[in-house]
Amino acid sequence: MKAWAIFVHSIRQVFGNLPEALQISGLIYLAQMAIAIALGVTTTAMEATTEPTGAEATKVTIAMMAMLIALMWIAVAWHRFVLLNERPAGYLPQFSLQRLGRYAGRSILIALLSLLIGMVLWLAFGTLFVGLFGLTWLTELLIVICVIVPVLTFLYRLSTILPGVAVDRDLGFADGWVATTGETPTILILAFLSGVAAIVLGSPLALLPEGSILSLLWQVISGWVQMMISASILTTLYGHYIEKRALL
Fold first, then answer.
1. What whole-number distance in Å separates Cα of residue 83 and Cα of residue 246?
2. Residue ranges of the domains in the chain?
3. Out of the domains of life, which is the source (predicted)?
């Protein structure tokens, strides 16, 4: 099954190059996490806040901006390492504002389109399943699955171009979609596997004391793993479908 091969290949890409993955992402990731913690913007803190004040909203905005810059910086550097074997000269990868700007522009547009599709699907499936089964935990689970998997599929197909943007290739916005034509079932299964992996990685948080050091530590570790595997999945999709590389 190609979806499983892509998923496993992406995991191996990270853990088979763990020293390089840590060198490329370690300091940047820890710095943005430190900003979030210093501002009190953690997963548990955000869940506990029902109506944020102006100051709290400002803190969340700063933390989100730091996170987005960090994620883009790491993703671009990781794509370039895997595809071009470009390694950081020191403890931080190269920071190219122009390259990150192009990558961010494409990423934000894809994210907005995915969000729009997600909202439409949420409304449609929510109305259908609540009407059929009422509001239960099973209904909520069905709605989440029926929304997340198609949205991730759409997201992956369009985002296949992003590693090409990172390595300075002149690609059209829809080139990833065209390159993955006929591969929707594969991408759909890949999206499902990614969703299951995210649930598995997040599930230990429910067992750990809220706000504890262990809970915070797991947020840091699981967040890093999800980030790197997601970047690797995009790299693998680009390499396989656009550069026609074999899945080893």
1. 13
2. 2-242
3. Bacteria
Nearest to 195 by CA among 129, 146, 122: 146
CA dihedral (138, 141, 147, 152) in degrees, to 10, reads -150
**Distance between CA atoms of residues 190 and 3, nearest Å:** 5
Residue 124 tokens read as 């449609």
User: How far apart (Å, rounded) are the C-alpha atoms in residues 237 and 242?
Assistant: 8
Taking the complete model, does pTM exceed 0.85, yes or no? yes
The CA distance from 27 to 93, in Å, is 10
- Count of beta carbons in the 10 Å neighbourhood of residue 148: 20
User: CB–CB of 145/86 below 8 Å?
Assistant: no
Tokens coding 219: 């947020």
pLDDT, tens digit (0-9, with 9 covering 90-100), for 44-71: 444 444 556 777 788 888 888 999 999 9
Find, among 58, 173, 172, the residue nearest to 112 by Cα.
173
Contact by Cβ (8 Å): 188, 149 = yes
CA dist., res. 227 & res. 231, Å (int): 6
